[in-house]
Amino acid sequence: MFGLNATAVVYTPNGTTGAYTVVAKAALVCRLANVRQEGKGAAEERDVVAQNRRLLWDEAYVMPSNAQIEVGGVRWNVVPNSYAAMTGLGSEVAYRRCDLAVV
Asked: pLDDT per residue over 85-98, tens digit each?
């Protein structure tokens, strides 16, 4: 996929402490995209949405269901049930995405 201009570290929870310290993927090539704010209500809600991002990455990597992402020193929680495999021509997966909320 073109436009992947960042590298993320994918963390999963430590089985003992629950802290996101276990590296699942050390160098995931990705893109952080802003989330559209159209149709959002109050200014306070728009401010919260403005902090969120959408993560796009290559189709070959399947993100763990419970993960935390670090890009450029900033940690993000993966929003549950936001995973999607985006298909292109021929119904083949072209890239994957999920929504992120800043930690």
From this structure: 999 888 899 999 99
Phi, psi (deg, nearest 5) at residue 17: -95, -25
Q: Are 52 and 37 a contacting pair, CB within 8 Å?
A: no
Question: What does the block give as tokens for 66?
Answer: 């419970």
Structure tokens that stand for 40 in this block: 């959002």
Cβ–Cβ < 8 Å for 46, 40? yes
Cβ atoms of 53 and 34 within 8 Å: the answer is yes
* Token digits of residue 39: 């149709």
Which conformational region is residue 47 in: left (phi greater than 0), alpha (psi within -120 to 50 degrees), or beta? alpha
pTM as predicted: 0.84
- pLDDT tens digits along 31-90: 999 876 555 556 555 555 557 899 999 999 999 989 999 999 999 999 989 999 999 888
Task: Go through the domains of the chain in sequence order and give each one's CATH number.
Answer: 6-102 (2.40.10)
